[in-house]
């Protein structure tokens, strides 16, 4: 399958994708078994480009998720949570459990993204995992996601110093800077902060 997919679309990044690996609740779905499967696929010529963790979880434990991510990161492949939903009847507990998963994913350098398997009540395979009520309003878990997203967005505002510089520390991602000159002219420039600790210098004189 991997060879045929690579032949049909040579530019596609092909992922493996499995469930229960991050939960430590299934002896047949451990990180070690998953890594062995990836090694077998590679030996057979499969161009594995990433690791998918489905993320259909209940009662998640942060330390367990982190341990699984640490082990899988040794494969030196990007990791995505591909089908996230957190099952819990109590909305307050669902919000807490969702935060556990998202914080572990966001904090881990090997994780490149998270995809939700669904968000709206009545349109998901698990009835106790929605972030939106049937009328489209946020429930407590949905509000927790919004709050976390706001926490992880960097905003900075200020004036340049005597050397014509303005410094800030931000999460990696895409930004837009707006500069207003003393004459009132406004300049906009988009830029991206990549992973890592290396500083990024943006020259607004060369737009």
UniProtKB/TrEMBL annotation:
InterPro entries: GH, GH10, GH10_dom. The keyword Hydrolase applies. Residues 1-148 form the GH10 domain. The keyword Amino-acid biosynthesis does not apply. PROSITE patterns: GH10_2 (PS51760). Keywords: Carbohydrate metabolism, Hydrolase, Polysaccharide degradation. GO terms for biological process: polysaccharide catabolic process. One of its GO terms (molecular function) is endo-1,4-beta-xylanase activity. It comes from the Eukaryota. It holds the Pfam family Glyco_hydro_10. Belongs to the glycosyl hydrolase 10 (cellulase F) family. This is GH10 domain-containing protein.
